[in-house]
Amino acid sequence: MVQAGPRPSRTKPHCVDAPLAWLLGRYLGDGWTRYTNRRGCVILACGKHKAESLRRHLTEGRFQWREIEMRTAIRFIIHGKALARWIEREFGKGASL
User: Fold this and answer.
1) What is the full DSSP assignment across 62-73?
2) pTM value?
3) Long-range Cβ contact pairs of 63-70 (< 8 A, separation 24 or more)
4) What is the 3-state secondary structure (H, E, C) of 2-64?
5) Alpha-carbon distance 72 to 89, whole Å?
6) Of the candidates 7, 1, 18, 2, which has an alpha carbon nearest to the alpha carbon of residue 91?
7) Measured between alpha carbons, how far apart are the two ends of the chain, in Å?
């Protein structure tokens, strides 16, 4: 496991294991965050031909997730407001990546 370096905004570093590192890589490539006052999530999109691989990784990583089939792609919604806020704060959002 790899630990993130200390940041002034937090009291203890987050532990980044292999499933979370994989999720971060997918987020940087094809992901975005969405949250409201009550809920939050990380969303990953992929072509239908790559969906099985994402399902396997998300299941192995023990994330709480669901999927939505779109016309040409599949969206995977990974639930977790704290996760979405942390990823956005540490790795950026939209064009700020």
Assistant:
1) T--EEEEE-SSE
2) 0.79
3) 63/19, 63/23, 70/45
4) EECCCCCCCCCCCEECHHHHHHHHHHHHHEEEEECCCCEEEEEEEEHHHHHHHHHHHHHCCCC
5) 30
6) 7
7) 24
- Per DSSP, the three-state class of 84 is helix
CA gap 80, 65 in Å, rounded: 9
In the structure encoding, which two tokens stand for residue 76, read together? 């995977």
Name the DSSP letter for residue 78: E
Using only C-alpha atoms, the chain has a radius of gyration, in whole angstroms, of 14
Taking the C-alpha atoms of residue 65 and residue 41, their distance in angstroms, rounded to an integer, is: 9
- In a 3-state reduction of DSSP, which class is residue 75? strand
pLDDT tens digit sequence for 12-57: 446 888 999 999 999 999 899 998 888 999 999 999 999 999 999 9
Alpha carbon of residue 86 to chain centroid: 10
